[in-house]
Amino acid sequence: MAIQSTDHGAARIARVSLHVFGAVFGGYALIALMVPLAGAAMAGLGMARSEAVVLAAMLGFVAYLALLVWGFSVKSTTRLWLKLASGAAATAGLLWLVQ
Amino acid sequence: METTFRNSMAWLHTWAGVVIGSVLFAIFWMGTLSVFDREIDRWMMPMTRLAAPVASLSLDATVRPVAERLAAKAPQWGVLLPTERVPTLRLSWRDDKDRTVTRYLDPATGAVLPEAGSHAGTGFIFPFHYRLHLKWMDLGYWLVGLAAMAMLVLLVSGVVIHKKIFAEFFLFRPRKRLQRSSLDLHNLTGVIALPFHFVITLSGLIIFIGIYFPQAHVGAYGIGQEAKDQYRLEARGGYQREKTNTPGTLASLDAMVNHAEREWAGGRPRFVRVWHPGDANSYVEMRRSYARDITMNRDQVYFDASTGGMLYRFEAAPVMTVQRFISGLHFIQFEHWTLRWLYFLAGLSGCVMIATGFLFWLEARRVQHAKKGLTGVRVVEALAIGSVTGIVIATLAFFVANRLLPLGSSFAGEDRAALEMWVFYLIWLATFGHAAWRRADPPTQPARRAWREQCMAIAVLALAAVLLNGVTTGDHLFKTLTRGYWPVAGMDMLLLLGTGVALWCSWRLSRPPATAKTAASARQVSRDTVGEGTPDA
Fold it and tell me: Is-contact B306 B249, C-beta < 8 A?
């Protein structure tokens, strides 16, 4: 399959590892922050608290799947990390505010 | 990762499959067997092969005297009631060293059955399916969760990379080259059971929301143990009160069962537990059966032990009930034999899909790797053999060991149940070693000899298990079939079927390898499936 011509040997292994690590663990970190935020948001909109938390957690798996597919389709590893990091920072900030 | 979305998905499908395929096959294999975990229990615990449970069971007459004799000083004792698939009462309590002790009782007489000395289906095979028996830091749960997410990603990427998914579904060329046939079979099993694979994997994750998202409640409830306890109480229910350390009595359990059944409009209890037995503050917990529903309800009623008055009642709210419905889709605790067999077949199709995925990966790279002197194919091939036929051999060895080890035996401080597990793990390890060392074919050819010998081992072990069951328990196939004792007859017949399939496989593997004229069809494969067919590693 297509491999970028500048990308060989150890450099490719490093880039691929960073990409996979970012998509899998970075993606999970982002979702793990979004789930409690979504739970708080739905509870704030009037859902019973425990119900909001269960719904947010169940949807978390679907969101994580979508994020993984996106993460592996993004071409640039730098952009992947930047987007995940800014997303996680924003979610963590909001979560800190609602608590 | 790659230049186009489809190329990225092809890369992802290839590598997620190879890296996680072994774990995934183990999870699918054990999950498929878990569909019949109670039947495996009957086969591996002959002392529990009782007649169908009695229609009306008196807890006061059968369970209470035994519990008061064995577990009088325990902080709690509980009993799982018989079901259509489990003819026994399962009494368990905590001993003075805080270990859980379990005894099986005959519901007709209350007699304590001899110790089973086996973890069998519900204690070994089923937990292996969701936590691989790796308890350290819940590592097993997390590995299974990771594998499940990988499975979902594999399904999505698999659909994306197969343009002609409908046409390929009707395509199976078993006589073509191995690479072509394995891809056809991979597509066939992948597509035919695609809805099953997706739902079973997602529902498996949703069962463990509390493990995979342990902090889900912190936004709505706050941080700390108190917040977590409050969330759990509201979501799952529960009641507790402290001991008083003054003596108390226990009113009629049967009357409490009747009360619970009125509360549940005829629903029966499946589990009854007495907390602080003999204490003035003792109380009784009852959980409702879900044998007739997909939803594994969280309905519970608590009674005061001395008066029998109701203390607490809980039913899950709607979203939690949806979670319990999705869990029920996965756990199949409802009584429905047709669906149970369909789950079993769909599970097997998942095993075939994973195994043929491995084969295709190997065949697509074998020639290139041999030319370049790379060892990737040989390593993955040994891993694939040990992961696929190896775990089947290990499982069968587990069954055979169960019939050979005498009750009450122990070795090097390990009891019989632990020894059975040791047999499983040691044999499994040995199959990887065998797969690595016993490949005689040249590197441009599949390791036919290793596959063939492992297939022969499967055939021999499966047949041995059936014979040993007949010899050691007397419940041979002729007897169980004529008497219609299906748990044991069914398992024996599946084992014999397994012997037949394994013999057929080893016969096919013993025929001379395909000739060179199929090279053209190999090139065809590369054109059919973007990315996947092109060796690049």
Answer: yes
Q: Is residue A29 part of a domain?
A: yes
pTM for the whole structure: 0.91
The interface pTM score, or ipTM, of the predicted complex is 0.92
B89-94 vs B283-288, strand pairing mode: unpaired
- The stretch B36-65 carries a mean pLDDT of 90
Using CB atoms and an 8 Å cut-off, which of residues 461-500 of chain B contact chain A? none
| A54 and chain B in contact, CB less than 8 A | yes
Positions of E strands within B438-524: none
Dump the DSSP string for B494-508: HHHHHHHHHHHHHHH
DSSP state of B389: I
pLDDT tens figures, B379-425 = 899 999 999 999 999 999 999 999 999 998 888 888 999 999 999 99
**Cβ–Cβ gap B12/A19 under 8 Å:** no
Residue-level pLDDT at B537: 34
Beta strands in B176-317 (DSSP E): 269-275, 283-288, 300-304, 310-314
* B479 Cα distance to chain centroid: 29
From B10, B205, B319, residue closest to A61, measured CB to CB: B205
> Are A73 and B217 inside 8 Å of each other by CB?
no
- Report the domain count for chain A: 1
Contact B294, B329 (CB under 8 A): yes
Range of the domain at A89: 9-98
